[in-house]
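Sample 1 of the test manifest.
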Amino acid sequence: MDRKSVKVVVAGGFGTGKTTLVGSVSEIPPLTTEEILTQASVGVDDVTGVEGKTNTTVALDFGRITISPDVVLYLFGTPGQDRFWFMWDEIAQGAVGAIVLVDTRRLGTSFPAVDYFERRGLPFVVAVNRFYGECLYSQEEIRGALELDPSVPLLWCDARDRDSSKQVLITLVRRAMSRLPVG
Amino acid sequence: MANLAGAMAYDVWDGDDEFAAGRLVPLYILVNGQTSPRNTSLDLATQVVALPRDLNRLEPEYQDIVGRCGAWVSIAELSAFLHLPLAIIKIMVDVLLEQGYLGIGAPAQQQIQDLRLLETVLAGLERL
């Protein structure tokens, strides 16, 4: 059957506004699903401090946008804890691309996300969330700090604002299209 | 049917030894100890839809899933609606697909290479 799902990853450090952005463009209030941390991921993930827990679960927030009668876009926020990389792999698999949200007060918390998508070769855009008011840094300073490739789009956004979040998504899809082989 | 999880869906749970609180059937019983679906293309965004079938022979937990699939719905949404972990939902959906209770949408791609699909998405977003 020709029912298609399209995935977009919404990443960034803790408190950068991932769920806010998902909620502002989603046609449903963000839903939460859970995955169990399996034995297979022990050793890959750093489980220091949670050794005593037998049922470690990872929460995942997501939303949806109906694009056409056949196509639904799902926005998946990455788990708050960076150590659950196995969930990132599942979300990123087959995704159009990723939005990396940045809070300039804690730029470093978004670095693992940039690094992950670069290594994976997944198209991504960096969106600086101006939730907390004016940004003190220039685009060049942020690019430099995140060691961004000049071709990676960097834009300001307000994750609470539907139009602003929509523009971030549109920028990402254009970026993904530009990376397709010609012909 | 050689598959144990498949055969299990035909048994009827008599509900005798229920727990004091919480779910009646432990999760590992629901999926008969399976830890992964055989259909590995099942992705958390894969959508499924109920096919016209008599559900009487299905266990209640499986009926709940089919009951949520009146319109196309993703694995992630089923997991959220039914409060079951993704890994469990995938295995149960896999069983229902194999037994013909559910239809499946386009499988997740390794990499999006479909320009027309991206154009559709772009147009859809611009209409928002």
